[in-house]
Every structure is written in structure tokens, then in C-alpha cells.
Design goal:
Layout lengths: L3 E2 L10 H8 L12 H14 L3 E5 L2 H12 L5 E5 L3 H4 L4 H6 L2 E5 L9 H6 L11 E7 L12 H13 L3 E5 L3 H8 L3 H5 L4 E5 L10 E5 L1 H13 L8 H13 L4 H16 L4 E2 L9 E6 L6 H10 L2 E2 L1 E2 L4 E5 L6 H15 L4
Parallel strand pairs: 1-11, 3-4, 3-5, 5-6, 6-7
Antiparallel strand pairs: 2-8, 7-8, 9-10, 10-13, 12-13
The structure holds ligand TLP.
The site of ligand TLP has 14 residues, from α3.
């Protein structure tokens, strides 16, 4: 039986073209700047997101941390949404390694931050207050169902922030999903941020890696911070090679994942005991609720597992499913059938 794994788009396996590129990659010692494949990937990444330079890092978590370390000093304050991945799921790395204080403001259901709430949270010049150094945004917003912020929404936060001398960072783990979902060039989403992190190892299906992009000067300093956190890799071209394929071949197909997520969400909405707000299903993530009292989300996940469908309960009554490379329309139909079976008799 094929397991239909909807836990995350991180479970994607490398494509045959990636495996071939990895096999034949030219490599060198990247700490000396001598891995030609890493250098090619960094140049390609910088160009894709419209920045001067880029840096290959191990993971999204490392990328966000390296950016925070590069923007901030100990004792600085960083503003982000209360549902930001960096706040919720990155092990408190900014506090642990950077000594920075994270100040959260509420996310709207779409992941958006109220631009006025952001500027209001910027600290004044007072001996008692920590200096605000950075605002972090997330697009698409993982905990807000993969919603995409438009270029105008991004600008409405970033422009006033930067006018006040504060930097803007984008956790763009899935920024290519946002761009494809909105039908815009990704540069329109990154044009007013000082730094952006995006992942190759999620919907783009590469086995490992993320990139950080920004100005030449920012990336030079970020490179040193990456070394400090143990992220200086050596013959990393073997994994960078898959990243080049990911950026060149795997972006446009994200639209298929979005269509499958939509199909899944519409199907789930029809099932008694489940509820989905379709307005917030915009890319590859479907967050839905188990509204029946007769079954818990954990029991739903266990029942589905027995049917060969894997997904996660994410707290409260909520569950999450992600579509990705390797999941076909037919798999969604099979998954919906499994849901009907598990939910039957629970309402
Ligand atoms: N998200 C993972 C889990 O950590 C929850 C997932 O399965 O969605 N930013 C965002 C918006 C993310 O969703 C993630 C990973 C990261 C950063 C961290 O990336 P990695 O896992 O590469 O450290």
C-alpha cells in the first residue's frame, strides 16, 4: 500500500534530475569559497529573489538565526507575529544564541500583521527600553494555513518600518509558494526586505538546504555568523546541485500542489465532523478542524494512519495536511475516502 504522507512538504524526495546533478556535481571546499556548485547556487538564488548576494545554509532554522544574528546585537528587540514559525518552532534560538528579546504582536487569520501595530511596537529612545532592531515577517504563513501576503501587504509593513531605520527580514521558507499562488514574481515580495530566507527542502523538493539573501555586506557578515553556528560546510556542492535543479525546475509545478490542496480542502469541508475555512486555503497547506465531539484530532490521525494516510494534529481541534511533489490528484481522492471512513460513526 502506498503511504500518502501529508505531514509536511519536507517529506519530499529528490527528483531523478536532482540525483543525477548530485552525482556529477563539481565540488570544492566551500569554507574557502571554492565550491563552484555552491557558488552557482548562491548566485542563482540571489538573482531569483532580487538581492545582491546569497548564502547557502543547512536549514530554515539556521537561516533565520543567522539573519537575526547578523541584524542584531545582544539586548536588541525583534518584532514578529505571535504565530511566527521563528517564535513558535525554532527552539528559542534567537534568545539562546543571539541574546535578543522577541516581542510578538497578533497575526491576523491571514498571517498579516497590522502595519500600525508594527510601527506602534517600535521602541522610543528611552534609557529603560531595549532598542528595536528588526521586524520579521513570514510569507507564506505556515501556522496561518499557508496564506500568502501580497506585494502591497508586504510593502505596507516594510516601508514604514525601514523609514524608521529598522530592518525587515522575511521568513520566506515557502516564498515561492506565495509567488506562484499570487501569480507574481517573487522579487515583488522581497523588494522591501533587507534579508530573506527561503527553503529548498520543502515544496521545491531538494533533500537539504535553505538560502539567505541580502546585500553584499549583509551576506559577508552572515557568512561569518554561519561559520560561528557550525554551518560552514565543505564539499556542499553535492547538495547544492539538487538546489539548483529545485530553483530551475520545481517552482512552476507548485501550482499543482496548490490545486491538490484546494481539492483536499473542498473534500474535507463536505465531511461531517470536519470544518475548513476555504478562504485561508491559498497554497499547499490545509489547516482544518475536527468539530465532532465524538473523536479527537489525535484519534483521527491514528485512524488515518491505519488507512495509509499520514498527517498531524497541531493542537486544540486543529489538524494540518500539506500537498507536495509525489502527491497526485488520485492520492487526494484516496485520502478523502480514508477520512470518510474514519469520521463515519463519530458524529
Ligand atoms: N516548518 C516545518 C516544521 O518545523 C513545522 C514544517 O513542516 O512546516 N520557517 C517556516 C515558515 C517553516 O515552515 C519552517 C519549517 C522553517 C522556517 C524551518 O525550516 P527547517 O525545518 O528547514 O529548519
Amino acid at each position: 500500500m502506498k503511504v500518502i504522507d501529508l505531514r509536511s512538504d519536507t517529506v519530499t524526495l529528490p527528483t531523478p534530475a536532482m540525483r543525477e546533478a548530485m552525482y556529477s556535481a563539481q565540488v570544492g571546499d566551500d569554507v574557502f569559497g571554492e565550491d563552484p556548485t555552491v557558488n552557482d547556487l548562491e548566485a542563482l538564488a540571489a538573482e531569483k529573489v532580487g538581492k545582491e548576494a546569497a548564502l547557502f545554509v543547512v536549514s530554515g532554522t539556521m537561516g533565520n538565526l543567522v539573519c537575526i544574528l547578523t541584524h542584531c546585537q545582544r539586548g536588541d528587540e525583534v518584532i514578529m507575529g505571535a504565530r511566527a514559525h521563528t517564535f513558535l518552532y525554532e527552539v528559542g534560538a534567537a534568545a539562546a544564541f543571539g541574546g535578543v528579546q522577541v516581542r510578538t504582536i497578533p497575526n491576523e487569520a491571514s498571517g498579516m500583521l497590522n502595519p500600525e501595530a508594527v510601527t506602534d511596537a517600535i521602541r522610543g529612545d528611552d534609557i529603560h527600553l531595549p532598542p528595536t532592531r528588526l521586524v520579521c515577517l513570514e510569507n507564506t504563513h505556515s501556522r496561518c494555513g499557508g496564506c500568502a501576503l501580497s506585494p502591497d501587504q508586504m510593502d505596507s509593513i516594510c516601508i514604514p518600518v525601514r523609514e524608521r531605520g529598522i530592518s525587515a527580514h522575511l521568513d520566506g521558507a515557502r516564498v515561492f509558494n506565495a509567488a506562484v499562488g499570487l501569480g507574481v514574481d517573487v522579487r515583488e515580495l522581497t523588494r522591501n526586505v533587507d534579508s530573506v530566507m527561503f527553503c529548498l527542502s520543502k515544496g521545491l523538493s531538494a533533500p537539504v538546504g535553505s538560502l539567505v539573501a541580502g546585500s553584499e555586506d549583509f551576506i559577508r557578515r552572515a557568512r561569518k555568523n554561519r561559520k560561528m553556528v557550525g554551518g560552514g560546510m565543505r564539499q556542499a556542492g553535492v547538495i547544492a546541485a539538487a538546489g539548483i535543479v529545485a530553483l530551475n525546475e520545481m517552482v512552476d509545478r507548485l501550482a499543482e500542489d496548490h490545486a491538490n490542496a484546494r481539492l483536499l480542502a473542498e473534500g474535507l469541508k463536505e465531511i461531517d465532523g470536519l470544518d475548513v475555512d476555504l478562504e485561508y486555503v491559498q497554497t499547499d497547506i490545509v489547516i482544518f478542524s475536527v468539530v465532532s465531539d465524538g473523536i479527537t484530532p489525535v484519534e483521527v490521525a491514528t485512524g488515518l494512519e491505519e488507512e495509509g494516510v499520514r498527517l498531524q494534529a497541531i493542537g486544540g481541534r486543529q489538524m494540518r495536511a500539506l500537498t507536495h511533489y509525489g502527491i497526485e490528484e488520485e492520492d487526494i481522492r484516496i485520502a478523502l475516502e480514508a477520512f470518510r471512513k474514519v469520521m463515519k460513526g463519530s458524529v
